[in-house]
Write a structure and sequence with these properties.
CATH topology of the domain at 27-198 and 232-257 and 321-339: Rossmann fold
Number of strands: 13
Strand content: 5-15%
Radius of gyration: 20 Å
CATH architecture of the domain at 27-198 and 232-257 and 321-339: 3-Layer(aba) Sandwich
Structural class: alpha/beta
Number of helices: 13
Distance between the termini: 35 Å
CATH class of the domain at 27-198 and 232-257 and 321-339: Alpha Beta
Length: 370
Amino acid sequence: MAETKANGAEPAPATSTARRVLEPGTRVAVTGASGFIGTAITRALVARHLDIAALLEPGARHTSLDGLPVTRFEADVRDATAVKQAIDGCRVVFHVAAVYRFWSPDPTAFYRVNVDGTRNVLAAAAAAGCELVVYTSSVGTLGLEHVAERGPADETCAPHVDHLFGLYKQSKYVAEHEVLRATALGMPVTLVLPTTPLGPGDHTPTPTGRLVVDYLNGRMPGWFDTALNIVDVDDVAAGHLLAAQRGEIGRSYIVGGENLELREILAQLARCTGLPGPRFRVPRPAALGAAWVSELVEGKLLHRMPHVPLEGARMASTRMVFSDARARRELGYRSRPAVEAIERSARWFAENGYVSEKRLAAIHWAAPTA
């Protein structure tokens, strides 16, 4: 990361920026507008009565935007011409589009979308004279090597590159530096780093949502010794809008919620669904062994998504806990209790066909306890 601590002190913002107002009618663009986070951001912008250009991946599912007053553009971020046409006339761009998964039948997609696509969006925003780009990065670009000794990671924690497990993290790390390079050359960009979002509308589902789906379908009898920072996807969207209005140029903001042990997350799912909780801890060697077999058989031989992706197993041995104090202090960011995000996610998956009939019949909903 470009920001570093000096004698343990939090660095001051490099650039003083007046608070911006997203006035009704302002023309804004959202890339990846029908994705999990993209949809939440688009809905939040619609509530502000903005003029929204929604950039959509050609051929993908876009039903999450049905009924919303947006102008749709089928524009693959890898297509520089299509991106430029869609962004033309926009004052603000929310660049959310990315390949977010732990495996892909086409490994080159991670770099072509996450890196080359980001370059295309930045170039289009510059050509359009945009006043601001809000870039959705990832806490996956931060260093977690010293969490056990120093506590939750923040925006100043640089990673050891050999700990950037998998193509998703690696490509987002490179993309983030392309964003910072553009900022150094004068492009007005603010960066938002979501933690682990849950909530309604995770159609794919993302790796985060897959954890909930697997639990609901009885495929997670045990837990890994890890921790996650859980945040509601609508709070992530609110964080993006706050960054657009109050964020400093070239500055990164973690938007998160609560740090919870994976065992606690599964226990909350058990409380709100009435389904059995996890029964045992899965040792790290067993998880890695299962992942290697899954990657070989399902990924390489059968060419389908591994049930236990290797990148996910590697991450399961890392405590992914973060501090979003900067966003709360500088942006006025707030988040709801993690248990609400967990329940909202579980209910949405149960109501939208992601849970087997047998398991669905066994669910007895109850309000989660803090």
